[in-house]
Write a structure and sequence with these properties.
Oligomer: single chain
Order of helices and strands: EHEEHHEEHEEEHHHEEE
Helix content: 25-40%
Strand order of the largest sheet: 3-2-1-4-8-6-9
CATH topology: Spore Coat Polysaccharide Biosynthesis Protein SpsA, Chain A
Largest sheet: 7 strands, mixed
CATH class: Alpha Beta
Structural class: alpha/beta
CATH architecture: Alpha-Beta Complex
Number of strands: 11
Shape: globular
Radius of gyration: 17 Å
Length: 233
């Protein structure tokens, strides 16, 4: 099988303070080293398949070095609070910041998925995730004929960080991210919580999906290996 592994979002440095795995020393790694090692671990989960790697990020320190570790690297300007404010309704500052961040994450994921699905390659599966987490999974449990996503739990203990991890057959992933921007804006405007928008967008697309609600911890600027093997369905 041929699989696209795609990272999107800010490339952050590694911080070993919350790291408890023995496969790598993450303390004080540069942003490039941390991103590259995360992808290397993810690739190892899909041994035996043909893998293409993608990174779609905001321009960052040492960004030119990332081309050595990914097959495809693209950069875009990070969405500002001002530009997002023209689209999203006014909310209290803390809530608004979270909405802007989630909105920017979704647009980043949408951009890289649309790029992948506009190439001449029709992958068997597409996986997308943020570059600042380490993922270790059993491909036999995750490569299914439906779309699977995981929200996890962020550093503040809040559930539902919707952009954490998504994987599915090519056609299903393409369908989710083919929703037009106006519908996406409307969904964000009418979502009570920022992460709810991800769920509502998937539902709006009509794609059959399986959410994983087990507790996984996502630390921004801190990093844990995620070793997750869901029960068979």
């Amino acid at each position: 099988m041929r699989i696209a592994l795609a990272y999107y979002g800010l490339v952050r440095p590694g911080d070993g303070s919350a790291f408890n795995a023995d496969d790598i020393n993450a303390h004080n790694q540069s942003n490039v080293e941390w991103c590259a090692s995360n992808m290397q671990l993810l690739k190892s989960c899909f041994e035996g398949n043909e893998i293409d790697t993608y990174l779609f990020s905001w321009n960052c320190k040492n960004s030119q070095e990332l081309g050595k570790y990914f097959d495809n690297v693209m950069f875009m300007k990070q969405i500002s609070n001002e530009s997002a404010g023209e689209i999203l309704p006014h909310r209290p500052q803390a809530v608004s910041t979270r909405f802007v961040a989630t909105y920017g994450e979704f647009l980043g994921a949408r951009q890289i998925i649309r790029f992948i699905t506009n190439t001449e390659i029709k992958y068997d599966y597409i996986l997308f995730s943020r570059p600042d987490v380490r993922i270790k999974l059993d491909q036999g449990q995750w490569l299914n004929d439906y779309y699977t996503c995981h929200g996890g739990i962020d550093a503040n203990g809040k559930k539902g960080t919707g952009g954490f991890l998504g994987i599915g057959p090519y056609d299903l992933v393409k369908k989710i991210f083919s929703i037009n921007l106006q519908d996406i804006h409307d969904i964000f405007k009418h979502s009570i919580h920022a992460e709810d928008a991800w769920t509502r967008i998937i539902d709006f697309s009509g794609v059959e999906w399986l959410p994983r609600q087990e507790d996984l911890y996502l630390f921004q600027h801190r990093n844990n290996v995620i070793n997750y093997k869901p029960d068979k369905y």
